[in-house]
Design brief:
Blueprint (H helix, E strand, L loop, with lengths): L10 H7 L2 H8 L5 H9 L3 H18 L42 H37 L1 H15 L3 H9 L7 H12 L1 H14 L3 H8 L4 H37 L11 H8 L8 H28 L5
Helix pairs in contact: 3-13, 4-5, 4-13, 5-6, 5-8, 5-9, 5-11, 5-13, 6-9, 7-8, 9-11, 11-12, 11-13, 12-13
Length: 315
């Protein structure tokens, strides 16, 4: 019998002889949907730009005293549009100049960040919970439940968003942050409900859901363990992109005098007041409008990056 010991490699020897990159590929564990999405996000410059901007904005919203010591509500009429922007006076009250009531525009821009982000995050969380819950129930159970929720969604979806919100807010004289959040949530949950319903209908037809149902899994376990985690990605994408829209909606309502009311500080309020003197003092409008644009832009960029990472077809 011929000796084949010199020509036959054992499994251990084959592994040792294989290139290092092949061994690493074979030993690499498959990533989950969220792990794969995070891997994609880490390699997208757009994600890091938006993330850095949002971290700075969140720091400003949480700790405005770190960026200015001026009182945003204290006005001095002797400074009525007196001081133009002094861009070399970094972080000083007169850095952006003063508004028509002699208040520091820089201080108001800084302190206005908190209310704008609170409204945006609050509305996004509320509509995601409400719309996601209704959409999940409609998509999973179908039948009468689906019909009732779908028709209710169609009714609310047919109401113009800003017009309906203006009507709701007009019933309140003291419009604080939570009032604006509730008003925007009242009409803003429909898109999330529709997206979640479609995702749940697709997810519940998957083989793993059918197998779990055959093994006797309870309805609660089916929803929260198997269906919801796999139907959540489109909902998160829509909610992230919509967050910037809710911040813009709050500013629009405040500009029209139906959003946050004094003494609350809002970019929309400042834009409304500055628009009266835009010809002679455009700087009073430029800074709050620029901050609003930057914030909305950052959230939209983040939403686009998350969408691209969670949708394999866009890679």
């Amino acid at each position: 019998m011929p000796d084949t010991s010199s020509t036959t490699l054992t499994a251990t020897e084959e592994t040792a002889a294989a290139p290092a990159d092949v061994v690493k590929t074979e030993q690499r564990k498959p990533r989950s949907l969220w792990g794969d999405a995070w891997f994609e996000l880490r390699h997208r410059p757009m994600f890091w730009v938006s993330a850095i901007l949002l971290v700075i904005l969140l720091l400003i919203a949480a700790f405005p005293g770190l960026f200015t010591s001026a009182d945003p509500t204290k006005g001095d009429l002797t400074n009525h549009f007196l001081s133009k922007p002094e861009l070399t006076h970094f972080f000083q009250p007169d850095w952006f100049g003063y508004d028509g009531q002699g208040r520091s525009i820089y201080a108001r821009v800084i302190h206005g960040t908190r209310n704008s982000i609170l409204v945006g995050v609050g509305v996004t969380a509320a509509v995601t919970f409400l719309g996601g819950l209704l959409g999940m129930l409609a998509g999973y159970f179908g039948g009468l439940i689906d019909s009732v929720i779908s028709r209710l969604t169609d009714i609310f979806f047919g109401i113009p968003f800003l017009l309906g919100t203006m009507v709701v807010l007009n019933a309140f004289t003291d419009r604080k942050v939570y009032v604006v959040v509730l008003a925007l949530t009242f009409l803003g949950w429909t898109s999330i409900a529709r997206v979640t319903r479609s995702s749940v209908i697709t997810a519940k037809q998957a083989d793993y859901v059918t197998a779990a149902r055959a093994l006797g899994a309870s309805t609660t376990r089916m929803l929260f363990r198997h269906v919801m985690p796999n139907a959540l990605a489109p909902t998160i994408v829509v909610a992230t992109i919509a967050l910037g829209g809710y911040i813009s909606a709050e500013a629009t309502l405040s500009y029209l005098g139906l959003g946050l009311s004094e003494p609350a500080i809002s970019w929309g309020i400042d834009i409304s007041e500055a628009s009266k003197a835009i010809r002679d003092n455009p700087h009073a409008l430029m800074f709050p409008a620029g901050m609003l644009t930057l914030t909305v832009f950052a959230f939209i960029m983040l939403g686009d990056a998350v969408r691209d990472a969670l949708d394999p077809k866009l890679r």
